[in-house]
Amino acid sequence: MKKAIDIVLKVVLSIILVMPILGLLGVFPPPTQDLYNTPQAFEFIETITAGRYITIIMVLVHIVALACLWTRRTALAALLILPITVNVVGFHAFLDGGLLTAGAVLGNVMLLINAYFLWQHRREYASLLAPTSSSSSRPDVALPAAPKE
Length: 149
What we know:
- The longest helix is centred in the N-terminal third of the chain and has 23 residues, at 2-24.
- Helix content is 63%, strand content 0%.
- It is an all-alpha fold.
- The protein starts with a helix and ends in a 20-residue tail after the last helix.
- α4 (74-94) packs antiparallel against α5.
- It has six helices and no strands.
- The chain has one domain.
């Protein structure tokens, strides 16, 4: 049952991740004011899409996340899309009228799926969250000698 749930959630998340890429390729019409609940939300979207930097980074991260998602690296995919998910939810929460608006649905779904995968793979993140000592106190790591003057 868990495997079936994982596959369904991967398919849904993949569709959500592909949609912005298809929008940039012109498959979907460009965003218009009527898609947003506030003028500030539309202005924000216009501003970040006008500069190609964010767009290129977003496409690269989405493609890498999709590759990770379907090559048994779901834990890495969940970490890669976490900042995107937080920004999508934050955008709708603070600029677009709240998390219960029609535009926020995909962001909310993305957040829930991402939280599910993060929780499922929480043991794999243990080494990332474990306290570490400085490398100078580790006996197996030799520090280079200081240059002589």
